[in-house]
Prior knowledge:
By secondary structure, this protein is an alpha/beta fold. The protein folds into 2 domains: 8-22 and 270-389, Aspartate Aminotransferase, domain 1 (Alpha-Beta Complex), CATH 3.90.1150; 31-268, Type I PLP-dependent aspartate aminotransferase-like (Major domain) (Aspartate Aminotransferase, domain 2, 3-Layer(aba) Sandwich). Helix content is 39%, strand content 15%. It has 12 helices and 14 strands. It has helices spanning 25-46, 53-66, 77-87, 105-112, 134-143, 163-173, 225-235, 257-268, 270-288, 315-324, 354-362, 374-389, and strands spanning 8-12, 15-20, 70-74, 94-98, 116-119, 147-152, 176-180, 188-189, 192-193, 200-204, 218-222, 301-302, 308-311, 363-366. The protein has a 7-stranded mixed beta sheet with strand order 3-11-10-7-6-4-5, with helices on both faces. Strand 1 (8-12) and strand 2 form a beta hairpin. The longest helix has 22 residues, at 25-46. The chain is globular. The structure holds pyridoxal-5'-phosphate. The site of pyridoxal-5'-phosphate (PLP) has 16 residues, from helix 3 and helix 4.
Amino acid sequence: MSDGRDSLWFYMDGNAQMKIQFVDLGAQQKRIRDKVEARIKKVLDHGQYIMGPEVAELEAGLAAYAGAKHCISCSSGTDALLMALMAYDIKPGDALITTPFTFIATAEVVALLGATPVFADIDPATFNINPALVSAAADKARGMGLIPRGIIPVDLFGLPADFDGILETARQRGLFVLDDAAQGFGGIYKGKKVGSIGDISATSFFPAKPLGCYGDGGAVFTEDDGLADKMVSIRIHGKGNDKYDNIRVGINGRMDTLQAAIMIEKLAIFEEEIVMRQKVAAAYTEALADVVEVPAVPQGYRSAWAQYSVLSDRRETIMKACQEAGIPIAVYYPKPLHMQTAFKYLGCKPGDFPESQRAAERIFSLPMHPYLKDGEMGYITDTIRRAATRK
Ligand SMILES: Cc1ncc(COP(=O)(O)O)c(C=O)c1O
């Protein structure tokens, strides 16, 4: 995934006029640089690089933002997912139902614990797991001799999953819901912020995410005191009350104090940035809706717009035109998980999840960040319109 620095220059009339970035971390940094530097200096002065006071300060701020009782920060979005599954004692013989149209980490953590990811296809309108297919996936898991334990929906591209349907199936089947909110933090589902829906939410603060740090970072959120206690312990080698009396096997999953300090300043402007992202997305949709399939945002949802992804049968032509115009474009994801080499052992076939396959063949993502200027968006949408309608 892009770290947001893959910038390109393009030239108009022979003059360097604009620099379009897929994710512009520099524009944000310019806004808050003084505050970030002051925060970093404070950490250098107190010297508590591991679990310094900024970690608890950030966690309190994140929990308040999400409306969640507990927030436990950690070293990455992947470790956030891992800590959540470890809190449920996931082990070989267990099955977790998830989407094949996601980043590898969602299912990787399941396999890491020796459990089996069982996929359910996406709803083509939202790219998120289709709740109507979850029960059949749980039956399939049973048929394989596995015990279905939980559902891992993903808020793909920032759009919250269809939680009502997912939670209903979860209740009926006695499954937990772990929201992979790596891309969804900042989103809203029917009045509830992502981070406060389901049993545990896990998010990522990878630099290019809507809320990112300057390195790796992540967090889990839950309302459940028991799960929170377990994840606090798992984050630091399964510690008990005494640091050297470990009561379970855990990981080294702490967030650095320096990252927490930086993120406190980023969180302060996050809501404003999410609102700015809505404007960018709305402008894209208005300019492109008649030439490509633009993303749907169902009633009652707010996307965090981690990506603005569109579909077209003319993807290759459009991407070539964008490349020539110096516009960075990414494809998330060219290969669904069931077709990746790492999951070959699951024995899936290309046609098993036709909606994921179809999306993978036609999808591409445009530059997306809160600081895109009107001129840049006009240049991007003009280029795409020309390529999409060329005879
Ligand atoms: C859907 C999803 N899950 C999990 C992760 C893993 O997050 P991290 O890179 O912070 O480990 C990512 C990161 O790209 C993601 O997009």
